[in-house]
UniProtKB/TrEMBL annotation:
Gene: thiC
Protein name: Phosphomethylpyrimidine synthase
Binding-site list for substrate: 232, 261, 290, 326, 346-348, 387-390, 426, 453
Positions annotated to bind Zn(2+): 430, 494
Start and end residues of each ThiC-associated domain: 23-100
Organism ancestry: Bacteria, Pseudomonadati, Pseudomonadota, Gammaproteobacteria, Pseudomonadales
Amino acid sequence: MTKQEKTINLSESAQVDQQSVQPFPRSRKVYVEGSRPDIRVPMREISLDDTPTDFGGESNAPVLVYDTSGPYTDPNVIIDVRKGLADVRSAWIDARGDTERLGGLSSDFGQQRLNDAELAKLRFAHVRNPRRAKAGANVSQMHYARQGIITAEMEYVAIRENMKLQEARAAGLLDDQHAGHSFGANIPKEITPEFVRQEIARGRAIIPANINHPEVEPMIIGRNFLVKINGNIGNSALGSSIEEEVAKLTWGIRWGSDTVMDLSTGKHIHETREWIIRNSPVPIGTVPIYQALEKVNGVAEDLTWELFRDTLIEQAEQGVDYFTIHAGVLLRYVPLTAKRVTGIVSRGGSIMAKWCLAHHKENFLYTHFDEICEIMKAYDVSFSLGDGLRPGSIADANDAAQFGELETLGELTKIAWKHDVQCMIEGPGHVPMQLIKENMDKQLECCDEAPFYTLGPLTTDIAPGYDHITSGIGAAMIGWFGCAMLCYVTPKEHLGLPNKDDVKTGIITYKIAAHAADLAKGHPGAQIRDNALSKARFEFRWEDQFNLGLDPDTARAFHDETLPKESAKVAHFCSMCGPKFCSMKITQEVREYAAKIEAVDVTVEQGMREQAERFRQEGSQLYHKV
């Protein structure tokens, strides 16, 4: 332990990041209740000012937006990261009667960590004994769905995806939405619990919700639902504390991260993950091979199935919701990467490739895949089948290694489905724009419409420091084509570990990409927020413009740089054009002028009709004697 770790007792001193618990301006947390009182689905309601009298003086209804921030932005909830979040799902899990509470951790490594007295000050203090499926039981959401059961989790996500669409439709808020082009997706006008069940049973969607993560607010990933985004956190050998990682978690979900992956590779991976899961309202994913490698001191050749299996159980008992498993990196594919510009860029892929070559054996994740499925269905951990051979440069996009692995991932998907285990597929990577749709089409074909989850893709390699933009372009495109979840890229990609500002920038960039994809697909209600903001912009309701945006703080700060006075918040111009050249103001003047002309035209038209009638009454003669 370092000197700092010896003197800090996290169970006594850990504090929530104060920036993450501030409510958004003019917003309040609302809860939509389901068929039972403990199904309370959170949403954020943004209140709006009335339209100024110059523009008609009407009131503007509040706008509901999807909310990933959990209880952190609810001022009525007391947050204490030392105790973790309140339980959301235990009553639902208990009611199903197919799980049992173990007497303690069953993984060897978990027990070692628990019995290490030196870790007491770092350990999360309120660790529950884990749950596991009863002998012979399968507790996955896919298994329930295939039995015709609509779980509380399914009802929860249906309410969450709908965002009170019926009320919005009744208010006419869906009338002005452009038709979308969904490339064969089947997006209904309303998301029902039965539709959710059907999509999960078919394998087109997953609800990542480990039975040991009762704090999670259920969400769904699938091409027929809202496009989701993932944010990565995690320590490294170079640094970062447990408190910093929890702060990154709460910061990321504030700005819209639907899931979070803990990619820790440094010290105290087990303890860091426990703190993260206990304080996370969103699903947590991991790459178990990273921790397994740490257990053998970074020597890939020393990895064994037995050690990896224990790592899976360790993480499943903590509550990890989805595992990235690089089971598609087969021995025969490794030589196909030899002539690549950037070779194998996936950390997990390179680990397994090295193991295969060192032992000249097939990937043990592939040969033991059925056994992995048995573990997954005992805890309801979802697969995120890793693309260990993804291209790391646009030169390597869509090559034989990448697509060979994708075909194997399709084979593994069908095995997972035989076990009723939920599964999504990871994708690239670096792909130029003209090759992106081929990736989506091939994934749908090979993996039978299992949800696709991509890193970008980055559309060019020339912009270090701006790869959130190079990848955001590709993310918007592949999201439109059918990708279900987009893994964010920060400005620090390829350069260093992201800080809080980088995390926020990456998430906002990807929220833009995901929302643009929802608009393009024609997802019902996707345009409501755009229309509300556009109306506020035209009516110079500056505060509403800020508050309806994805990042109110930055919008307000940019406006204040040149017009800091409060009076500027009601001005009918901005600093871009000034008062005389504002197009919105000029348009309003044109409308007022047109209204006057229209009134004159009405008077003239009436006079013309009266003269025509008089002409007919007088015999329709052109000339009359005076």
